Amino acid sequence: MMRINKSIFLCLACLFSAVGCQIKKHIPEGELLYTGATLDIEAPDVKDFKSVEEELQSLLRPEPNSKFLGSYFGLWAYYKSQKEKPGFINRFLNKKFGEEPVYFSQVNPERTEELILNRLENRGFFYGTASSESISGEKFAEVKYSAKVGRPYVLKEFKLDRDSLQIEHDINSLLADSDFQPGSRFDLNSLNKERERLDSELKQKGYYNFNNDFLIFEADTNISDSARQFNLYLRLKNNIPENSTLKYQVDQIKVYPNYSLDNENEPVDTVHLDGKEFLQGTVVFKPELLNDYILIEKGEMYDPKNSRLSSNRLSSIGNYKYVNLRYEEMDFKDSLGHLAASFQLSPMTKRSVRAELLGVSKSNNFAGPALNLVFRNRNLFKGGENFNISANIGYEFQIAGGDRSGLHSLELGLKADLIFPRVIFFVPIKEKFSYSVPKTKISVGTEYLSRGGLYQLNSLFTSYGYFWNANKFAYHEINPININIVNLTKSSPEFDEILANNPFLQRSFDQNFIVGINYIFNYNKINDPIRKHGYFFGLGIDFAGNLMAGIDNLFGENNGKILGLEYARYGKFDFDFRYHFNFNKNQTIATRLFAGIGVPIGNSSSLPYSKQYFSGGPNSIRAFRIRSIGPGSYRPEEFNNDSYFDQSGDIRLEGNIEYRFPMVSFLKGALFMDAGNIWLMNENEALPGGKFSSSWWNEIAVGTGFGLRVDIDFFVIRFDLATPLRKPFLEEGQRWGNTFDVGSKTWRRENLIFNFAIGYPF
């Protein structure tokens, strides 16, 4: 194997050396290939100078041709395609990887020097110097820039030039909160941000027609012969429109709950409520309910924040295609502007039926086709209520070699949801959540699950809870009532034997009555494409059985059963943190850390089976087959579908890192490494080595691999090929390492794991 690796390395070295030689002969006579520029900056010790340095470095244009492993592969592909008969392969390489050459004749060092000095002056560093030196060889050239930066000008005093108008008094009161304080460095970007801040604050005070272009900054540097200081003066432009200096009051609010261009001329009835006029023909939305979503009040000053939030709240109901808020100016009186506000709300279709044929990849590592049918009735009681009935059928499996390749399931489900766009509680709650209104959700449903001919489960469930977005990043969900009744209706002799050999597993299936409360919090800043650093934080809390235990103590026999059903009692906590570093919109390093713990309470010795953790599979540690890791250092006597049920636990710890990069068109690639395991809270004689201990770190499984993703905007099909690096079920001292004997069929069967899934793993 070592000789093969050396041969590959030598072949690659020769290939890229040949590419480098061919580049030189293609460079036209009289041209030099531009290889880039450097910038050496001599500057005093100044706070926050790093951002200035980064801005100066960005001025070094143009960008030279990129290199891959030290070779101009893209440029080579371009030159090869320029031949008289380039051939299909060369044309293809140029289309996908080719780069037009960047020659030294395209570089303008003098212009770059001017830009460097300009940016320094914009940042307060006046009287600097910039120079450049061109260094050329036989076929290549580069530029070395130098900049000398002096001490910056700092603020001595910042004040308003005059304050005779009411708006100037308001501006003067806002300067106390300015970031410009004595000692601040002169910075043009900061001045622009200050203008935007003042404009936003003035609009918040009711100046509807004000514009930040009406503000002018003037700097005076002639205040000291020795110190580099300046005074900053702020004033309004001359001859600005009169209405831009007036505050505006909202005198009229009209709401059209059923707005459409087709029925503009239809007769309407008007309902007056809290200073608002609700205009509609037949009642589409009850005014007393719609009124709670609108934060604008008659007689108050114009407030852009409340205007924006009112539109957000109305949109969050989920019944309207468009929410349009318009203001019209009315006549001036008493040195005050007056506005008429109108909300034009265009409803969605009241009833709809949708059928979806899906490729599903679940968190339990099963994937497969599914069919969903959804009936939706919007605005059921004329208060924005949504009533949904959904039915689904799904067949799930994991594509993997080995003894577990036959693992599959059939799932049928029927569910009804009633969602109120407000808080429904036993006492009235008039909430004024600013960003969006919490919704109340009542759910009831049933599911049928057949797992690979081993057993069949029927379940009934119902829940009552609330969910809402605190802002565009934060999501909350709490279900104070969550009831699940699970019944093992049929089991095969093989599965009965599995349960008989593992009392803990038997107990987890006996606990078929789950009554609890759960809470979910997500904070997501990953999906913003312009964000260099994206992150996601998820928290899940789940408690069950405490209420049942109290009832059992008061009225029962304290035997862990209610109405003949054994209830589960536990506490469960999940922590999910993800961080994405985006080099650009196409290249990302994605990481994830997941930690979860479930604690059986009272008579419960283990979590219900549906609540247990597992490890291995396409959304977990991809170098191991589904549920083939743990708990701890436990290893089944045989890896097959029967051992699938033994390998679950109460504790899970997992970390992943993945480098994602583009390949061709919609095809993307990934290199990844995964690590983790699961453990038990209590000792289980049937699973030796499964209990969590102080040496947990020595029982971590590690795997690595590469993947292909077919990314077509609205969905992603994922293929991953992985191999283990560390196997925790082996004897200590033998867990690390892999022979990488790719030529061996046995090695490939045991160590090359293929995973198929829908969507990215994290």
Shape: globular
Please report which band the strand proportion falls in: under 5%, 5-15%, 15-25%, 25-35%, 35-45% or over 45%. Answer: 35-45%
Number of strands: 29
How far the N terminus sits from the C terminus, by CA atoms, comes to 34 Å
Largest sheet: 16 strands, antiparallel
Question: For the largest beta sheet, what order do the strands appear in spatially?
Answer: 12-13-14-15-16-17-18-19-20-23-24-25-26-27-28-29
Average pLDDT number: 86
User: Count the helices. How many?
Assistant: 13
Compute the CA-based radius of gyration: 34 Å
Q: Give helix % range.
A: 10-25%
| Low-pLDDT sequence parts | 1-18, 400-404
Main traits of this protein?
38% strand, 762 residues, disordered N terminus, alpha+beta, 13 helices, 29 strands, 16-stranded antiparallel sheet, five-stranded mixed sheet
Structure description:
There is one protein chain. By secondary structure, this protein is an alpha+beta fold. It contains 13 helices and 29 strands. A hairpin with a 5-residue loop joins strand 12 and strand 13. Helix 3 crosses helix 4. The longest helix has 25 residues.
Summarize the structure.
The chain has 762 residues and is α+β, with helices and mostly antiparallel strands.
How do the strands and helices of this protein lay out in sequence?
Elements: H1 2-26, E1 33-42, H2 49-57, H3 73-81, H4 87-97, H5 109-122, E2 129-136, E3 140-148, E4 154-160, H6 166-174, H7 188-204, E5 215-220, E6 229-236, E7 248-256, E8 269-273, E9 276-280, H8 287-290, H9 304-316, E10 320-329, E11 337-347, E12 351-361, E13 367-378, E14 386-397, E15 408-420, E16 439-451, E17 455-469, E18 474-491, H10 493-501, H11 503-510, E19 513-524, E20 533-544, H12 546-555, E21 561-562, E22 565-566, E23 570-582, E24 588-600, E25 651-664, E26 667-679, E27 701-711, E28 716-726, H13 745-751, E29 753-758
Parallel strand pairs: 1-3, 4-6, 7-9, 7-11
Antiparallel strand pairs: 2-3, 5-6, 8-9, 10-11, 12-13, 13-14, 14-15, 15-16, 16-17, 17-18, 18-19, 19-20, 20-23, 21-22, 23-24, 24-25, 25-26, 26-27, 27-28, 28-29
Helix pairs in contact: 1-3, 3-4, 10-11
